[in-house]
Amino acid sequence: MKSSQAKIFDFTLLKQKLSEQENVMMAFVFGSARYGEQIRPDSDVDIAIWLKNQPTLDERLFLLELCQETLQFDKIDLCFLNTTGTLLRFEALSGTKLVIRDTELYADFFSKTCRYYEDDMMRLERNRRIWHEIHRENEV
């Protein structure tokens, strides 16, 4: 598989291959390759998958190989939304949908991810303000 040249992706076949996997409930491509446009040779393709069950090591390896072979590209960054944090989930939602097997699951995932993301951003901003206040006081 060649990864040394800039590449343009067509995700049609990957959609089909992932849809054939009964355990794949949702899948997204996100990051710089999400629209299939040309990416830099040093870039990777970010793919996020939600499985019906917790992914085993064998399933993880099988799906990674499936993505690599289907796209004919080695640099795949595959994450499993069942086990990732809020920020990565939010990033995946900003990408292109490859598989949505259950619209209720997707709606619930979307809603919760957005709420948790907003909560996380508010906490981060509050902590940032507190940090600046503490450091300003120490400068005096």
Structure summarized in a few sentences:
The chain is α+β, with helices and mostly antiparallel strands. It has a single domain (12-139), classed as Beta Polymerase, domain 2 (2-Layer Sandwich), CATH 3.30.460.10.
Keyword list:
140 residues; alpha+beta; Beta Polymerase, domain 2
Please describe the topology of this protein.
Elements: H1 12-19, E1 24-30, E2 45-51, H2 57-71, E3 76-80, H3 86-93, E4 96-100, H4 103-139
Parallel strand pairs: 2-3
Antiparallel strand pairs: 1-2, 1-4
Helix pairs in contact: 1-2, 3-4
Structural overview:
With 140 residues, this protein is of the alpha+beta class. It has a single domain, classed as Beta Polymerase, domain 2, CATH 3.30.460.10. It is built from 4 helices and 4 strands; from the N terminus they run H-E-E-H-E-H-E-H. The protein has helices at residues 12-19, 57-71, 86-93, 103-139; strands at residues 24-30, 45-51, 76-80, 96-100. The protein has a 4-stranded mixed sheet with strand order 3-2-1-4, with helices on both faces. Helix 2 (57-71) links the parallel strand 2 (45-51) and strand 3. The chain is globular. The termini are far apart. 23% of the residues are buried. The mean pLDDT is 90.
